[in-house]
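>> received
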Amino acid sequence: MNSRELKKSAGKLLLKCVLPAAVFIVWMIATTRGNVSPILLPKLGAVGSDFVSYAISGEIFRHVFVSLRRCAIGFLIGSTLGITSGILLGWFERLEDFFDFVINFVRAIPKTALAPLLIVWFGFGDLPKVVLIGLGAFFYTVIPTLEGVQNVDSLLVKSARSLGANDRQILFGVILPSALPSIYAGIRIASTSSFVVLLFVEIISGNDGLGYLLEDARERLNTSTMFMTLIVVGILGFSLDWFVRYTEKKVMPWQKGKTLSR
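>> returned
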């Protein structure tokens, strides 16, 4: 990396840090000089102190591990099934016609609304949480994958066939590479949305995990722990999104990600 690229990267990083830094500064001023109740908005020091206490005891890491395990299992199963189904539905038109009504009917139902029913069916263990996350990941990935497969330029397919390519070669050599941007768009949405679904179901039925920690703090009116938990969730969600974008650049090096303003 030359000096020009280094300066550009440093400038982008600085620009990204301006807004979060401003938020924290306003937060500090409001809680130290303003007449704000600590129940409504705790001091940053109290939030940091809670994090240190939970970190030393190891409790925060236990809750993070439990939530990440549930999220990873549900997301991987749901997104794998969603991508596979999207490819099949996009490749076989009759299959899409057969499943179209069911997929769009179930997709219209908020996944969080299914939580009480899944709890009745599967109890209060990990299974209803994983199933709910998997359902969300499935529907967030199946539609973008389907659209990506169907919107591949027909000229590319005709050119491949004119060169003697069979269906398998067209699928893996033309269709999938062309549909990858849409697939990754669905993966990005599914990865971060999985945390939203997870927190909701842990809040209403969990006895461990970050959602449970958040609800437990709410019952004790401990807003500093609530803010600490939300910040941890935000960091995890941001890290997961960054990882997905990083793998996207590695899988699709031809996608520069430039806009007209650059």
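>> The chain has one domain: 59-251.
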